[in-house]
Write a structure and sequence with these properties.
about 90 residues, alpha+beta, two-stranded antiparallel ribbon, 2 strands, about 20% helix, about 15% strand, globular
Length: about 90
């Protein structure tokens, strides 16, 4: 989770993933970019258990980025800002 996020209470929670070249850690992460992987609804849900409760999140966008910061917004001043952000993220998936 990005350091700017506050325990999933933000309007946008940024999660990062990486893998090891030898595939020992998160070796299947590259599959998230394959449309066949994303079509499986189970793959698009994150379950999280915290001391404050159990949560389920639906992933709506997955994309690989070169250096950019356009995805790092964690709050929005207006509903329109949030909708514009979602539109850009949705187009990148």
């Amino acid at each position: 989770m990005d350091y700017r996020n506050d325990e999933f209470s933000d309007r946008n929670t940024v999660l990062y993933g990486h893998n090891m070249k030898n595939g020992t850690m998160f070796g299947s992460l590259k599959k998230v970019l394959e449309s066949s992987w994303r079509k499986n609804e189970e793959n698009m849900t994150i379950s999280l258990d915290l001391p404050t409760g159990s949560y389920k999140f639906k992933i709506f966008s997955i994309y690989k980025v070169d250096y950019t910061t356009d995805y790092l917004l964690t709050s929005f001043d207006t509903i329109q800002e949030k909708l514009d952000f979602i539109k850009v993220a949705y187009q990148k998936r």
